[in-house]
Amino acid sequence: MQKIRVALDWTPNINHIGFFVAQEKGWFKNSNIDVELLNPADDDYQTTPAKKVELGQADFALSPTESVISYRTKAKPFPMIAVAAIMQKDLSAIVVLEESDIHSPKDLDGKTYASYQARYEDQIVKSMIKNDGGEGTIHVDYPNKLGIWNTLVDGTYDSTWVFMNWEGVVASQKGIQIRAFTLEDYDIPYSYSPVIIADQTNVESNTDLYSTFITQVKAGYLFAGKHPEEAAKILHPHLPEHDQEIDLVKAIEYTAPYYGAERWGIMDEKVIEVFLNWLREQNLETYPLSASELITNKLLG
Fold first, then answer.
1. Nearest 10 degrees: Cα torsion 223, 226, 228, 231
2. Distance (Å, rounded) from C-alpha 102 to C-alpha 180?
3. d(CA 48, CA 67)
4. Is the CB of residue 59 less than 8 Å from the CB of residue 80?
5. Which own/partner pairs from 101-106 qualify as long-range (CB within 8 Å, at least 24 positions apart)?
6. Does the pLDDT of residue 285 top 90, yes or no?
7. What is the pLDDT of residue 119?
8. DSSP strand E in the chain: where?
9. How do residues 236-246 score in pLDDT, each as one tens digit?
10. Among 123, 126, 184, 236, which residue's beta carbon has the most beta carbons within 10 A?
């Protein structure tokens, strides 16, 4: 039995369902793989998922594409690479409470934003404001990552970044009226998020093992899309206490159309290149990276 550790990017949620389905169904075990899913709540996010890969504490992690760019451009570069995209379309958005006087991104000038402190996050939000005709003078703060959603709900902060297939579903279910601003609507060509990342050196030396693992992960996601009620029952016991009441079937049905069916996981270099070019235009990145250095589809068959 070969061990594989996966560092989740958040407490268990809809974006992780394929891993839990494959594990519950015994598909990893049948492939002679012992999979351990590492929950960031266990260390209160003290070590990021990507860092766990760099340190050798995890074989894979979930992260936005930016993490791959970040590790490739460190003072001492690390060969991080994305091996699969969970979804073919970004389902995230910047959100505010509908009761606020924020009707579009430009209204965020002078307001507050709860940031996850990702590499380009704050500048992306400011660029969204500017693209809407604002000045980009939003006040950014960095609360505890795992509690950021609640800081929006309780009014501590005016805005934050969420996944509409998770927090968006929670808001709808609980009658919390939110207003969402997607990046593509304001001319920001955001890339895949989340992606499954790994050390490229390990990918090249463990191609067969890693390909088998990713094949079973893919099967888990596609099963969830076709059997939402059964998949919901599988994921539910793993949810943190504060998420126990979420309508998982609704979350799955929201997400499944974006898995890409048999194209699940596939990443398009053109999508990455457009994002890289945007980062350069914004003077956020000067390192001469190419999309082929950041992603590989070789584990997807």
1. -10
2. 10
3. 10
4. no
5. 102/158, 102/159, 102/179, 103/179, 104/132, 104/181, 105/129, 105/131, 105/132, 105/134, 105/181, 105/186, 106/132, 106/133, 106/134
6. no
7. 87
8. 2-7, 33-38, 60-63, 80-85, 92-97, 112-114, 139-141, 159-163, 178-181, 195-199
9. 999 999 888 99
10. 126
Query: Going by CATH, does the domain composed of 92-186 fall within 2.60.120.330?
Result: no
**Residues near 116 by beta carbon (within 8 Å), at least 6 away in sequence:** 142, 145, 148, 161
Strands 80-85 and 33-38: unpaired
| Rounded Cα gap, residues 213 and 33, in angstroms | 8
Residue whose token pair is 């660029």: 127
- The answer on pLDDT for 301 being more than 90 is no
Two tokens at 282?
């914004």
Residue for token pair 């550790």: 5
CATH number for the domain running over 2-88+192-300: 3.40.190.10
Residue with tokens 């965020």: 108
Per-residue CA distances from 104 to 97, 132, 159, 181, 186 (Å): 12, 8, 11, 7, 10
* DSSP per residue, 123-157: HHHHHHHHHTT----PEEE---GGGHHHHHHTTSS
Which H or E run includes 49? helix 49-54
Burial class (CB in 10 A: 0-12, 13-18, 19+), 197: buried
Strand pairing report for 80-85 and 112-114:
unpaired
pLDDT digits (tens, 9 = 90+) for 46-93: 999 999 999 999 999 999 999 999 999 999 999 999 999 999 999 999
Domain ranges in the chain are: 2-88+192-300, 92-186
Using the 8-state DSSP alphabet, how is residue 225 labeled?
H
Strands 195-199 and 60-63: antiparallel
pLDDT tens digits for range 137-149: 999 999 998 889 9
Asked whether this chain's domains 2-88+192-300 and 92-186 adopt the same fold, the reply is yes
